[in-house]
Automatic annotation (TrEMBL):
One MF term in the entry's GO annotations: ATP binding
Cross-referenced InterPro entries: FSCA_dom_sf, MIP18-like, Mrp/NBP35_ATP-bd, NUBPL-like, P-loop_NTPase, YlxH/NBP35
Biological classification of the source: Bacteria, Pseudomonadati, Verrucomicrobiota, Opitutia, Opitutia incertae sedis
Keyword Repeat on entry: no
Keyword field contains Transmembrane helix: no
Role: Binds and transfers iron-sulfur (Fe-S) clusters to target apoproteins. Can hydrolyze ATP.
Subunit structure as annotated in this protein's UniProt entry: Homodimer.
Organism encoding this protein: Candidatus Spyradosoma merdigallinarum
Name under which the protein is recorded: Iron-sulfur cluster carrier protein
C-alpha cells in the first residue's frame, strides 16, 4: 500500500451529516506509511461539536482496515479546534435557547424562489416531525425572515399579526401552527426599507437575540440573496447547523449560487445541500415535462460544492397561488407532487441533524 491508496481509502469517509469526503474537504493533513507497513494519518477539523473528532477517527480506522491495513498498524490522530470568532472583539455565534436546529435557506441571487422554499420547508418540517411522533405540528417549527429589503414571509405564510412583547422579549406570532418573525409584520405594506448596513445588522441581531421562540425542533432562517451585511451579521450572531442553497436550473443562477455558498464554507457552516426550484413544468395535456429554465443546474451546483441535491421543485401554479394566498402548497395541497418533494427534503434534513 502506498500514500495514494491510503487517500483512496480515506475518500470513503464522509464528514458526519454531509456527503463530502474528508480528503476533498482538505481535512487530511498527513498520510504516511512506514517501512513495516504501519499507516499513520493526521486529520484536522474545526468544529464546536465534541463528538465529531471521535466519529471521524473511528470511521478512518475502519476505512483503513477495510483496505487491508492490520488494526495494530493503524494510527489515526484527529485534532480539533473550535471555530474562531468572525472578527476581533466579536463574540462567537450563540445558540437560541430552546431551539434544537437552525437551518439557513440562502441563494446567490434573487428571483429563484428562496422564500417560497423557506416557508414550504418549514411547513414540511412540521408535518414530518408530527408524522414521526417527534412533536406536534403546531408550534414545533419557526421561520425567521431576515430578508430585510424584501420581507415576503408574512404574505406567503399568512402571518399578518404584529409580534407581541413578553417582558423584554419579542414573541413571534403563529400562522398555520408555524411561528414567524419578520420586519414585514411591523411595516406598512408600501413602506420601503431604506437602511444602511449597520441598521440592517442591528435589526437582524435583535430578531435573533431578543425573540422568545419557546421550544422549537427547527428554525428556518430566510436569508436575503447574496453575501452582504445581513448574511454576515447572521452567521456572526447565530450558530447555524447548516445551510440549504436554492437555485434554478439556468447557468446564470447556478454560477451565482456557487459563489454565494462559498461564504458558508468560510465561516464553518456546513452545506446541507441544494434545492433546485422551477425545475420543470408538467404539460397538463399529456403529462410531459418541459424544462423551461434548462436542466441539471441544481445537480451541477451540488457537485461543485461537494454536497447533495436534496430535491427538484417543479414550476406549479399551485405553488404560486398558495404563496399569494398565505397557505403554502405543503399545507394547501399536501398530496401534490411539490408537497411530497418538500417533505422528502425536510426528512433528509432531519435525518442529518
Amino acid at each position: 500500500m502506498d500514500k495514494t491508496q491510503i487517500l483512496e481509502a480515506l475518500k470513503t469517509v464522509t464528514y458526519p451529516g454531509l456527503s463530502r469526503d474528508i480528503v476533498s474537504f482538505g481535512l487530511v493533513k498527513s498520510a504516511e506509511i512506514a517501512p513495516d507497513g504501519a499507516v499513520s494519518v493526521e486529520i484536522a477539523v474545526t468544529t464546536s461539536k465534541p463528538e465529531i473528532p471521535e466519529q471521524l477517527k473511528t470511521a478512518a480506522e475502519s476505512a483503513l482496515a477495510a483496505a487491508g491495513v492490520p488494526a495494530e498498524k493503524i494510527s489515526v490522530k484527529v485534532g480539533a479546534t473550535v471555530p474562531a470568532a468572525p472578527g476581533a472583539g466579536t463574540p462567537p455565534p450563540r445558540r437560541i435557547p430552546g431551539v434544537r436546529r437552525v437551518i439557513a435557506v440562502a441563494s446567490g441571487k434573487g428571483g429563484v424562489g428562496k422564500s417560497t422554499v423557506a416557508v414550504n420547508l418549514a411547513a414540511a418540517l412540521a408535518q414530518v416531525l408530527e408524522e414521526d411522533g417527534v412533536a406536534p405540528a403546531a408550534g414545533s417549527v419557526g421561520v425567521l425572515d431576515c430578508d430585510i429589503y424584501g420581507p415576503s414571509v408574512p404574505m406567503m405564510l399568512g402571518a399578518h399579526e404584529q409580534p407581541t412583547l413578553r417582558g423584554e422579549k419579542i414573541v413571534p406570532p403563529e400562522a398555520h401552527g408555524i411561528k414567524a418573525l419578520s420586519l414585514g409584520m411591523m411595516l406598512d405594506e408600501d413602506t420601503p426599507v431604506v437602511w444602511r448596513g449597520p441598521v440592517v445588522g442591528k435589526a437582524i441581531r435583535q430578531f435573533a437575540e431578543d425573540a422568545d421562540w419557546g421550544a422549537l425542533e427547527a428554525l428556518v432562517v430566510d436569508l436575503p440573496p447574496g453575501t452582504g451585511d445581513a448574511q454576515i451579521t447572521l452567521v456572526q450572531t447565530l450558530a447555524l447547523d447548516g445551510a440549504v442553497i436554492v437555485t434554478t436550473p439556468q447557468e446564470v443562477a447556478v454560477s451565482v449560487a456557487r459563489r454565494g455558498a462559498r461564504m458558508f464554507e468560510k465561516v464553518n457552516v456546513p452545506l446541507v445541500g441544494v434545492v433546485e426550484n422551477m425545475s420543470w413544468f408538467e404539460n397538463p395535456a399529456d403529462g410531459s415535462r418541459e424544462y423551461i429554465f434548462g436542466k441539471g443546474g441544481g445537480a451541477k451546483t451540488a457537485a461543485a460544492l461537494g454536497t447533495d441535491l436534496l430535491g427538484e421543485i417543479p414550476v406549479s401554479a399551485e405553488i404560486r397561488s398558495g404563496g399569494d394566498a398565505g397557505t403554502p402548497i405543503v399545507l394547501a395541497a399536501p398530496h401534490s407532487v411539490p408537497a411530497q418533494i418538500f417533505r422528502s427534503v425536510a426528512r433528509e434534513i432531519l435525518r442529518r441533524f
